[in-house]
Amino acid sequence: RYVFFLDPCNIDLVHQRIKSLALCVSACPRKELKTLADIQKFAETNGSTLCSYELQPSEYTTDPRAAKLCPKYPVPESAPIPFFHRCAPVNISCYAKFAEALITFVSDSSVLHRLISGVMTSKEIIMGLCLLSLVLSMILMVIIRYISRVLVWILTILVILGSLGGTGVLWWLYAKQRVSASAAESQIAKDNLQALLIYAISATVFTVILFLIMLIMRKRVALTIALFHVAGKVFIHLPLLVFQPFWTFFVLILFWTYWITVLLFLGTTGSPVPNEEGFVEFRMVGPLKYMWWYHVVGLIWISEFILACQQMTVAGAVVTYYFTR
Q1: Where is the signal peptide, in residue numbers (predicted)?
Q2: FRET label pair with 224: which of 114, 122, 205, 276, CA 20 to 30 Å apart?
Q3: In terms of domains, do 232 and 143 share one?
C-alpha cells in the first residue's frame, strides 16, 4: 500500500529525485528501528519487509548482503503522506529535504512538456468535440422556444434516471466486489471495497436529496418553463446575441495564443547543459523554475475575466430588451 525508501534522506536536488531504492510495504515504521534485529522483528510483526525483496526476513541478521540490501540504520520514524502514500521521515531536518524534493518534482518543467504533448496528440478529438458542442448548442437555441415545456421535463427526468442508474451501478459493483474480496482478503481489496461503499452511500444520499428537492420545487418548474420561453423570444428579437459567444471565443483564442507563446518561451529558458545521453537540454534554476505556476494563474484569471465580460454584455442586452415598453 505504501512506498518505503531505504535511504529517504539521500536526496539529489539537482536531478530532482530521491537516490534510494523504493519498496512496496504494507506499513511504515512508526518508531525508530536501531538494528537489523529491530528491522527483522518489524517484518515479522507487520508483514512489511523493509529490505530488498531478495532477502527473506529470517536472513536479515545472518546474510552478509544485508548491509547493502537493507535500509541504513537507525531507520528513522516515518508516517505515510496522505494521497501520495509515501513513507516520509518524521525527523524535521530529513523531512524538509524530502518535502523539497517532492515539491521540486511536482514543479518540474517535464510535467508541462507532457501536458502539452498530450493535448497535441489528441487535438483532432478535442476539435471534433468542440464542433459537436457548437452544433448542438445552435440546434438547442433554435428549438428552445417551441419545446421549452417538453425540454424542461426531459432534462428533469434524465437527471433523475441518471442519479438512480449511477446509484444502482455503484451498489452492484460493491456487492460484486464484496463477493470476490472474500476469497482474497488483501489490504488493497479492503480499501477498494470501503471506497465503493462510501461512493454508493454518497450517491444514495445525493439521489434522496435530489428527489426531495424535485418534490418541493415542482411548482417552480412552471417558472423555469416561462424563463425558457422568454429566452426563446430574446433570441428572435436580438439575433446578434447568437454571435456574442463567437466574439468571446475569438478574444480567448488571441489570448490563448499569446499565453502558449509565453509558455513555450518559459519552457526553453535556463542554461543549456549536456546530459548523460550527449544531448543538450535547458535546465531552469532559481525562481524561473516556478514561473509557470504564476503563468497558469494568469491563464485562469484573464480567461474568467473575458467570460465575465460576455456575461455582462448578454445580461445588459437582455435586461434592456425585457424592460423596454
Answers
A1: none
A2: 205
A3: yes
Task: Read off the pLDDT of residues 169-220 as tens digits, 9 standing for 90 and up.
Answer: 999 988 888 877 655 556 667 777 888 889 999 999 999 998 888 888 877 7
The answer to whether position 115 is within a domain reads: no
Is there a cis peptide before residue 76, judged by omega within 30 degrees of 0? no
Q: Is residue 123 part of a domain?
A: no
| 71: nearest Cα among 107, 121, 35, 111 | 35
- What's the rounded Cα separation, in Å, for the pair 113 and 292? 12
Q: How far apart are CA 46 and CA 33, in angstroms?
A: 13
Phi, psi of 174 (to 5 degrees): -65, -45
Residue 229: give the domain boundaries. 139-236
List of residues 6+ apart from 82 with CB closer than 8 A: none
Q: Give the whole-angstrom CA distance, residue 191 versus residue 118.
A: 31
How many residues would you count in the chain?
325
- CB neighbourhood size of 109 (10 A): 20
pLDDT of residue 109: 53
Task: Indicate if 232 and 260 belong to the same structural domain.
Answer: no
Lowest mean pLDDT segment, chosen from 52-66, 140-154, 255-269: 140-154
